[in-house]
Amino acid sequence: MGRAKRKPGPLARRPDNSAFKQQRLPAWSPMLTANTVLPFFYFMALICMLLGVWLLLTVQGTQEIKLDYTEAGTCDKCFEKRKNVSSAAESCICKVVFLVEKPFKGDVFFYYGLQNFHQNLRRYMDSRDDGQLVGRKSNLKEPSSYCEPFAKDQNGLPIAPCGAVANSFFNDSFTLTYYGSSGDPVKVPLLRTGITWYTDKNVKYRNPQIDNLTLAQVFEGTAKPLYWKKPVYELDPLDPTNNGFINDDLIVWMREAAFPNFKKLYGVLYHDKLFTDGLPAGNYSIDISYNFPVQYFQGRKEVVLTTLTWFGGQNYFLPIAYLVTSSLILLIAVILTVAWWKFGKKGKNMEE
Amino acid sequence: MPVCSLCLERERHVKANDPDYNEKFFYADNRIKTSKYNIFTFLPMNLFEQFQRVANAYFLVLLILQLIPEISSLSPFTTIVPLVLVLVITAIKDATDDYFRYKSDQQVNNRQSQVLIRGCLQNEKWMNIHVGDIIRLENNQFVAADILLLSSSEPYGLCYIETAELDGETNLKVRQALSITSDLGDVSKLMDFDGKVICEPPNNKLDRFTGTLYWRGNRYPLDNEKMLLRGCVLRNTEWCFGLVIFAGLQTKLMQNCGRTKFKRTNIDKLMNTLVLWIFAFLICMGAILGIGNTIWESLIDTNFQVYLPWNTIQNNVVFSGFLTFWSYVIILNTVVPISLYVSVEILRLGHSYFINWDLKMYHSRTDTAAVARTTTLNEELGQVEFIFSDKTGTLTQNIMVFSKCSINGHIYGDVYDEFSQKMEITDKTACVDFSFNPLSDTRFKFYDSSLVEAVKLEDPAVQEFFRLLALCHTVMPEEKSEGHLVYQAQSPDEGALVTAARNFGFVFRARTPETITLCEMGEAVTYQLLAILDFNNVRKRMSVIVRNPEGQVKLYCKGADTIIFERLDPSNEDLMSTTSEHLSEFAGEGLRTLALAYKDLDEDYFKVWNKKLLFASTVIENREDQLDVVYEEIEQGLKLLGATAVEDKLQEGVPQTIACLGLADIKIWVLTGDKLETAMNIGYSCNMLRDDMNEVFVISGHTLVEVQQELRTAKEHILGLSRVSAAGDVEKTDAFSDDSVFEETIIAEYALVINGHSLAHALEPQLEHILLDLACLCKSVICCRVTPMQKAQVVELVKRHKRAITLAIGDGANDVSMIKTAHIGVGISGQEGMQAVLASDYSFAQFRYLQRLLLVHGRWSYFRMCNFLCYFFYKNFAFTLVHFWYGFFCGFSAQTVYDQWFITLYNIVYTSLPVLAMGLFDQDVSDQYSLRYPSLYKPGQQNLLFNKRQFFLCTLQGLGTSFLVFFIPYGAFSDIVKEDATQFSEQQVFAVTIATSLIIVVNVQIGLDTHYWAAVNHLFIWGSVTLYFAILFTVQSNGIFFIIPKNFPFVGTARNCLSEKSVWLIILLTTVVCVVPSLVVSFLRVDLFPTLTDKERSLRRVRRTSSRRSAYAFSHQQGYGELITSGKNMRMSVVSSACSPEREPHSSSWIENVIKSKNEVSCISDESTELKQSNRLQSTQSEPDL
């Protein structure tokens, strides 16, 4: 406005005749007409239909076996044992047997699953220290207050990794055995590393600066979490590079699930000898080192063996949702077409 | 305490040259301070003010809640960032405003002025002037304070001022010092001046001042004519001296800058209600989730303590639930959008700028652009149902032309042809040649030469008639060079009359306070001016008493005819009746009339009377009443001279505008101070009254009973006898409920004209209902002879009972009350001064711009604001309620779904700009179309676009979207993995997926809601989506994670998540499912049940392809044939030519046709013939369907 005043001449207060000020900006004014909307609906219906069919076909190519082992097989005694406080600390190994009727082709993935376990409670989710997990020395010695009451042990030593999430680390372990046609047990080889996101393994989780020390020396002065049997630097006895905060199992556990029923990756089938094409049909057993108590919260534990598609496991939700959406849109489109044909054309006129 | 002395001040005592005396009273000094803050007080005061707003206080409370770790479910910065942003924006705006006020204060305070200090004149800054100082002003200087004029360079202590800053009037006004002080011309005499003034306390009445000067034992009355008010400019006066009476904030100017009443729009009020509702809703949701938490804790969470031990608080599950309630209040607080108020302010400001910038509301002749003086009312312009218009200066140009007169029973001014038929006056008609008079004004046009002949023949009545016109007025002459006279008149009527007298040989040349010099037929004659009995609204007349060179004392009086006729000598009976006829004739032609009379006074009688006058004029209390009594006494037994008729020209485009606004269902009531006949005539000429109306009711009863009877009869007439008798008894109670029924059934057109004195009765409580009923049944309402107070009462009446938005438009001081009372006040920046404009909310130069203001700007503003609000609530509900659903899955633990950065930025960054762009630039139909189809305005009046129902619908849509946006990913996530089999169904991925879906859904939705995709909309919508992804990847990048791992825990999620096809499938599905329902609804609405707007929009498309019709059809209009055969238009043209010669018969019948056809028709002013053309095309196109 100030500029306008400085204009000389008799029409000093004359507003600018610009498209912006006169609200005449060139613009596109789309209109919802039958000519655009109805074809759009048919088109969307078609797209959703195609996607749905495609997804459905893809899903049907997958195979999956779910095995609830909470009380299955010989695990019922372990389950009882864990119930009992006095025997809670004792180790317990049990076995579950199952049959694979059709061979699993291609990559096969081994998941463990938990039900009714709330990793998504606010206080639970917050109970961790990302600074510690990325290897900050200061956080290692002085964990964040969010970790309470799992920040320090009774001796006042800082816990590494601190917090409720790490403390409740899932510590069952599994050995999958195949009984071929001969009946000889063959251990199914599982790759236990490479099951995390690249960013987690390399960015979000790091061990504290090692320099020339061993991992155990780095973690000196810290305590292991309350429920753990081994300290964090001894999680994987086989692979020394898979210890500390960058242990794959730990990273998988620390990525908190959004819902109380979840499954987490345990291992990937290693294509070796018998298993080059996947899992052959036949009898299998899983030996379970049964440590993780779930009876307190009426939880269930399971293992899942599955092959995958590009969008996940045996997930029927998406294909069905697409198909339902598609048919609904088609239905709407047809109704709208009929309605438009019958009444719509009249509405265009100016009278009334 | 100065403050205390202020509130107690009953009388002001000021002693000249005695600072010690004056200091005792602690009068305000001359420093003004309109700025509110200084550097140190700005922060605390501004913050304090800002937190007085409910919304800001609400967010402050939330912030405090978030600082409590037990319940803080979100980190405080999710509230701090938006709140600080909002506060900073507001603070910056306040600070700049205040800085400019400070600058202007400084500039004013530092102006220099000469003050008499200890015997010599010194330059002082204005702020150092005190009450009681004597200051010297020079030509063209601003007056520094309210001062009493003591002496001036001009003879008789006269001085001239311009009061443009006070009331906008640019004509010169004269002020005169008391003759006793007018010789205090030099410093030494002024030093000895020790007069004492006792006067009224500071007030805001610009036109009144009462006080008394005590000096040397005498008392001298003081009135407004001796005061120079702050803000005036001294003109044509070399210097003057004055005594400061009021200074600084106590000056009348500053007292008038009082805070204007803050007007709130309907939408504002609705918005506040809705925010309260939302708040209640928020509490409900919080309570549900809190109770859920209590139940969950006691049933399930007890079992989970192994992994997550309870802290001490949780041992009491009810208390835990209570804390959860607060946690959820924090999480869900975004349903009350923090940026709502700021955004609404921005929108309104933008809309105001569009009004200011509108070239089509710019009047180039006066170089006046439209101004939105308040920025808070724009959308209400789209809901106006009643317009109350002043007539003079609003509908008419307020340019007065002396066109006819009646002198001694003879009419002058008509032109006759050779057959003694009255001729129409056109541009070609020969003007009277005034070359015999060297002093004549060449712009003055008169067509009847017989009057000049009469003057030349020295007809005594004619001479006396013009002598009166030359003497009895308050015009100031200015003779710039010999013979080149310029008159500065208070009112245009007066200017026209004096100019007429000038051209007919009675030239008013000069005046002094005591004399008036005329040049009568070429020879100079000086009259001694004995008294001016000034005009006011009650007296409706003014008189002068002069002594002519022969020594006779004469009183000349001019005034309203009824007033003059009451005071005539009985001997004038015959002349009175003839003149009365002439007056009716004049009034019938829409002319403004004045009656002129004179009286010879006896010298002795005058002396006696003059003493009474002198006495009355020194009284302090009720001075005006007493003066009126004295005036009344002498203005009796007058002798009638004749009457004048002055033409009041209609403004351009007024009839078209009124017709057009009528088609938009806006009722226009004209409230005018004019007499019945004039008002009715203007009504006819601007199409408010038409000859084809069924009935024009004229209410002019003098008593309550008469008025009641007249109103009843009129109403019965309209409704038919039966209905009134049935409803008559109960009408007081249920009259209003029946209104809608009544109004629908009335097909015939009626008009109501009501007189001022009847209106006074009709506005009484027992009659106001029936008046309102009747008025609303009529197409047009004209109230004439109304006082400013009554104008406001009428507006108030409608405002109170009709729940409709009212707009008052006027240009003069008498419209101020009405303008302030109405919801929206519009001032015409015309010729009658600035008071109306100063009190108004919008101002522009021409009445016809009202059409554009309402139908284009108002309509757009309303439309934009409503769409904006709907979308705003929608997007916030869609965003926030996701947390509600998640509550059922996360054990009511107040875990958020989204990343906290997303929560922080959603409202202020990701979704704010597209909706602002829509709110600022969206157009459903173009301005031309909204002018062409005034019916498009109706949805606003019916409040259709945003009301509680709409709000409910859009929140429901938000609720639905939040449901789908949550549950579709939920379904998919139950069993989803990343393509490389690494884990995927986890909270952070879920958060990013939902957030991305939400952003896409709300942006698609606003894309669907946007009707007008300008480049800005594209930029903002695509920009927002891009910005979302940019920020998403930044916040989740490695670099920023290493800086503060704790605050950016989502590192890498976006990369891993958005690289998955499955996630995009989920997003696609969510978007489709969320958008399809609203698309279906819009499609059904637009194509199957289209509103007028939709039809217009679709029509515009059709138009482009097929617009060829025969030329014959183009120029033809419906109803024309009927007009010709019925002869109506013949009669019309006769009538119209008789009524006002200027009016084009063609254009008027065109308008009538338009109205008659009751079709959607244009009323675009003639400027754009192209539009008119296409409009005709329009009406013909639709014809076959009728």
UniProtKB/TrEMBL annotation, chain A:
GO terms for biological process: phospholipid translocation. Its main location: membrane. The chain crosses the membrane at residues 37-57, 316-341. Pfam families: CDC50 (PF03381). It is found in: Membrane. GO terms for cellular component: endoplasmic reticulum; Golgi apparatus; plasma membrane. It comes from the Eukaryota. Keywords: Membrane, Transmembrane, Transmembrane helix. Belongs to the CDC50/LEM3 family. This is Cell cycle control protein. It comes from Monopterus albus (Swamp eel).
From TrEMBL, chain B:
It catalyses: ATP + H2O + phospholipidSide 1 = ADP + phosphate + phospholipidSide 2. The chain crosses the membrane at residues 74-92, 274-296, 316-342, 868-889, 901-921, 951-970, 990-1008, 1020-1044, 1064-1086. It is found in: Endomembrane system; Membrane. Residues 837-1091 form the P-type ATPase C-terminal domain. Residues 14-80 form the P-type ATPase N-terminal domain. GO terms for cellular component: plasma membrane; trans-Golgi network. It is a multi-pass membrane protein. Its EC number is 7.6.2.1. ATP binds at residues 390-392, 494, 535, 558, 592, 672-674, 785, 791, 814-815. The keyword Glycosyltransferase does not apply. Keywords: ATP-binding, Magnesium, Membrane, Metal-binding, Nucleotide-binding, Translocase, Transmembrane, Transmembrane helix, Transport. InterPro entries: ATPase_P-typ_cyto_dom_N, ATPase_P-typ_P_site, ATPase_P-typ_TM_dom_sf, ATPase_P-typ_transduc_dom_A_sf, HAD-like_sf, HAD_sf, P-type_ATPase_IV, P-type_ATPase_N. Its cofactor is Mg(2+). GO terms for biological process: Golgi organization; phospholipid translocation. GO terms for molecular function: ATP binding; ATP hydrolysis activity; flippase activity; magnesium ion binding; phospholipid transporter activity. The active site is at residue 390. The keyword Lipid biosynthesis does not apply. Mg(2+) binds at residues 390, 392, 811, 815. Belongs to the cation transport ATPase (P-type) (TC 3.A.3) family. Type IV subfamily. PANTHER family: PHOSPHOLIPID-TRANSPORTING ATPASE IM-RELATED, PROBABLE PHOSPHOLIPID-TRANSPORTING ATPASE. This is Phospholipid-transporting ATPase. It comes from Monopterus albus.
